[in-house]
Predict the 3D structure of the following.
Amino acid sequence: MRVSGTTFIRNATVYNYPVVEAIKSILPICDEFIVNVGDSVDNTEEMVRNIGDSRIKIIHSVWDENLREGGRIFALQTNIAIREASGDWVFHINADEVVHEEDLEKIYMKMKENFENRRVEGLTFEFIHFYGSYYTYQKARNWYRREVRVIRNGLGIVAYRDGQGFRKEGVKKIFTVPSGAKIYHYGWARKPLAMKEKVMYFSRFWHDDEWIEKKISTKLPEEIFEDLANLRIFTGTHPKVMQGKVSDEGLLFILQLREKYLSRRRPLEAIRDLLRRIYVFEYKGFLE
């Protein structure tokens, strides 16, 4: 059984993506690792090369800045990497996602356990979405709770829509089993100004300039953090590869912002919080 790791990245330093940590977090269980490096203006490719592992293969792509609908560019870049994978399983990890070292063995064993069971086409992961700091995360229902990150190669399974999940032949949901592991998602664990800059740039792949100017440009940096009602305190441990990045900076700020928000909306949010705990109508882009 061979396992391919894949990811894509562009301007990792400019937008502070923990891509090196993402790669290193799953590299121990991969036989090869395909990194699709987009046309960057910083030292992204050098960062990846400096990992210094012979299993890493760097490929190059040029992003089409005219693809400004539904985040399609992210699925496209994901699929460019996946097409180069030769393993039986493909473990795709986004550049702001990291796996805890304690979960690696269970992920590998789950792939091995289901290797001969051709009905199983992928593995799902629980997600921890850090928001505003490294010690606050989202429990709101509009943040996906589970998603596919390991797929069986050679079945025509590709990234779907904006690359959040995967479908066979681009439309059919794939049959999955739980991996028993978590993905630590750090995309929103940024300071307000850095978060605003990132949101402004990447919004262009969903919206036109007029929408960005109206909805994003006029906001203060701290106003970027709008989804505050369902924040929770993280009491677990971060993956070891993230130890150089994790700090409690921003924790007090985001908690104060949340309290200010709730002081105005507490009765309404209490009702919404109860409803969000009911997963009857939860979106799932996979079968199980």
